[in-house]
# Entry
Amino acid sequence: LTPRDLARSLEHLRQHLGIDQINTIIGGSLGGQVGIEWAYLLQHQVKNTIILASNAKTSPWTIAFNESQRMAIETDCTWGENHPEAGKKGMETARAIAMISYRHPE
# Structure
């Protein structure tokens, strides 16, 4: 699923609920990308858009971080097992990788 797919699903929901106009779309990170897409789809039907810690397009650098996180999860030998702790160490490693990507070197 892409941010555009998610925005289109929100747009279908908005129409189904009979909501004519959105006052404010707020989103951060992936939610920010979805917010940008949904605001673009809505055009004049959205009054405000607030995007935090996000971008309109994912860079190769970000894609590489995301792939390294997936790899960390998949290499956890408990990933996919049917118990509450399954995949926990892989998720912890993936989260540590993410935390590095959120910070500026300085």
Q: What stands out?
A: Strands lie at 22-28, 46-52.
